[in-house]
Automatic annotation (TrEMBL), chain A:
It comes from Pseudooceanicola albus. PROSITE patterns: ABC_TM1. It comes from the Bacteria. This is ABC transporter permease subunit. The keyword Membrane applies.
From TrEMBL, chain B:
This is ATP-binding cassette domain-containing protein. InterPro entries: AAA+_ATPase, ABC_transporter-like_ATP-bd, ABC_transporter-like_CS, ABC_transpr_MalK-like, ABC_transpr_MalK/UgpC-like, Mo/tungstate-bd_C_term_dom, NA-bd_OB-fold, P-loop_NTPase. Pfam families: ABC_tran, TOBE_2. Residues 4-234 form the ABC transporter domain. Keywords: ATP-binding, Nucleotide-binding, Transport. The keyword Membrane does not apply.
């Protein structure tokens, strides 16, 4: 990447793309920041005025905010636990040679191709519905009272739905990692007298550490902004039992028409997400370097 | 302590029989080398002994105990792999400690054995490094260290030197031989390099297509190869194999003469030929002699500083008592 001249030319040529992308990001961010300091309600147009940090004050002291924050954390951590553990187990299973391996592997990946709204609707109406759902039929067949998942355990149900969607992703990445493990290492461990569980703990898990890191990192980014599943199934309810930050901001700005308050929430969410990102990178970045 | 007996051991992968029924006894304390071209089943045979592959038939006895169905860990053998198979996320110390940790050896005993192994293998300064930070030779020594601390009844080596450069290979060859002299434990060593086999072995097992062609001490194989395959495989450069009228003159289908058993003269001799390529090694020169009417080319060893050039005419005379004779099936006569 040679001379000063060619570097200058390179910069000049990529500048349109960089400027466009920058504008794409900066303008919405700047507008959100600006709106967050305004009293701006769509019900009373033309009445916008500068109110400083009042929006933030209202948003942060709203009891729904803490509920949403807790729910967001529970949702992210819950799905991560299910997908990482489940993904590892599935990967171990799919790594075994068996009849029809190719087809089974493709079918395991399938849920990832179903869009979130569709999968949430299928789960809500065909599985979890307390009258017509498959689970209701199962319960009735066993002589039990059908369980109304989305009313009794809304957050757990959403964790289940989202986990179902993300399990294939974790499985796929962990399976490829598992397949890249040197078989001679496992054989050496076998010769060294390690039973299967020891081989898993001492050889396979450390080998998987990097892949698990990648799974956690990527999933966290997407799970912080879960929205469609909540909108389609519980609408954040009952009460705020399944409202996460994204859904709270949506309620604020589009159901209560409070653009100012919603923008303040958005800025808070950006700050929180960045805090999470910094911690994740600190903790996990080390793992990626080694 | 480390006597391994293979009794009609057979191995097939599906319909393909890679090792037809085979008998072999490895005596306690012996250094046995399995040698053969690639794909001859020597690694498979080693893995059968290790227990990493199941036999398709026959019996493996270790110290007179039937070990045919024992899992690898229960056989009391230690193996050094071609890729070393060190655990990349563990330090050298933990790598060496791993088999003892699995066996539940007390901590202070572990430390004692690690120190002893590290001292013997010159690894003391590297105990806290990871395998990734070591050179090829050091990794090799860690793999050996991991095998030693288990105090196995026999060591199994699967082409352990093939990933090292030439100079290191010679050094490690010596170290492994010294290790054997010190420990006096049975060692089974797989290689495709006949130089390793000749220099290290007490007993060489030459394999071809899963079959044992000959078993014997290195010099025994060199002096009286049982057939043309062993004759061609053992010795470097290869033995010259000559067929046709010249062989018939010796009442044989094929005769073999080693390059070092042929005298070269510029005045006269038994076979006349023309010098082709000559390979100068310093101490020796290998001449490829063409147009003798006996074979495509004969290889001859002459002294290091010899004034023969491409195209020169030379006469070759084999040492009469060093001519090997083989019949039409390639088997040795006499």
């Amino acid at each position: 990447m040679a001379t000063k001249h060619s570097r200058a030319a390179a910069r000049l040529m990529i500048s349109p793309a960089v400027l466009l992308l920058l504008a794409w990001m900066i303008i919405p961010l700047a507008m959100t920041l600006y709106f967050s300091f305004l009293s701006y309600n769509l019900m009373s147009p033309g009445m916008e005025r500068w109110i400083g940090f009042t929006n933030y004050q209202y948003f942060l002291t709203d009891p729904a905010f803490f509920a949403a924050l807790t729910n967001t954390i529970l949702l992210v951590v819950g799905v991560l636990i299910v997908t990482v553990i489940g993904g590892t187990l599935f990967a171990l299973l799919l790594d075994q040679p068996f009849f029809g391996q190719g087809i089974v592997r493709i079918m395991v990946i399938a849920p990832f191709f179903v869009m979130p709204t569709v999968s949430a609707l299928v789960w809500k109406n065909m599985f979890m519905n307390p009258v017509n759902g498959l689970f209701a039929h199962l319960f009735k067949a066993l002589g039990l009272q059908p369980f109304d998942f989305l009313a009794q355990a809304p957050l757990a149900s959403i964790i289940g739905i989202v986990s179902w969607q993300w399990l294939p992703f974790a499985t796929l990445i962990l399976l490829t990692a598992l397949q890249s493990l040197d078989q001679e290492q496992l054989e050496a461990a076998e010769m060294d007298g390690a039973p299967w569980l020891s081989r898993f703990i001492h050889i396979m898990l450390p080998h998987l550490a990097r892949a698990i890191t990648v799974v956690i990192l990527i999933q966290t980014i997407f799970l912080l902004s879960i929205f469609a599943e909540i909108l389609v199934t519980t609408n954040g309810g009952p009460g705020t039992a399944s409202t996460n930050l994204t859904y709270l901001i949506y309620m604020q700005s589009l159901l209560q028409f409070d653009v100012g308050g919603g923008s303040a929430g958005g800025v808070v969410a950006i700050i929180l997400a960045n805090i999470v990102a910094i911690f994740l990178m600190r903790m996990i970045g080390k793992n990626l370097e080694a | 302590m480390g006597r391994i007996t293979l009794d009609k051991v057979r191995k097939a992968f599906g319909p393909v029989e890679v090792i037809p029924p085979l008998d072999l006894t490895i005596e306690d304390g012996e250094f046995v080398v399995f040698v053969g071209p690639s794909g001859c089943g020597k690694s498979t045979l080693l893995r059968l002994i290790a227990g990493l592959e199941d036999v398709s038939g026959g019996e493996i006895r270790i110290d007179r105990v039937d070990a045919t169905t024992l899992p690898p860990a229960k056989r009391g053998l230690a193996m050094v792999f071609q890729s070393y198979a060190l655990y990349p996320h563990m330090s050298v110390r933990k790598n060496i400690a791993f088999p003892m940790k699995m066996a539940g050896v007390p901590k202070d005993e572990q430390d004692r054995r690690i120190e002893a192994a590290a001292k013997a293998l010159n690894l003391t300064d590297y105990l806290d490094r990871r395998p990734g930070q070591l050179s090829g030779g050091q990794r090799q020594r860690v793999a050996i260290g991991r095998a030693i601390v288990r105090e196995p009844s026999a060591f199994l080596f699967d082409e352990p030197l093939s990933n090292l450069d030439a100079a290191l290979r010679v050094g490690m060859r010596l170290e492994i031989s010294e290790l054997h002299a010190r420990l006096k434990t049975t060692m089974v060593y797989v290689t495709h390099d006949q130089v390793e086999a000749m220099t290290m072995a007490d007993k060489i097992v030459v394999l071809r297509a899963g079959r044992i062609e000959q078993v014997g001490a290195p010099l025994e194989l060199y002096q009286s190869p049982r057939n043309t395959f062993v004759a061609g495989f053992i010795g470097s450069p290869k033995m010259n194999l000559i067929e046709g009228p010249e062989a018939a003159r010796h009442d044989a289908h094929t005769i073999g003469v080693r390059p070092e058993h042929i005298a070269v003269s510029t005045e006269g001799g038994q076979w006349q030929g023309r010098v082709g390529v000559s390979e100068h090694l310093g101490s020796d020169t290998f001449l490829h002699v063409h147009d003798t009417g006996l074979a495509e080319a004969l290889t001859v060893r002459v002294g290091g500083e010899v004034a023969l050039h491409q195209g020169d005419t030379v006469w070759l005379s084999p040492e009469a008592d060093k001519i090997h004779r083989f019949d039409a099936d390639g088997l040795r006569i006499g």
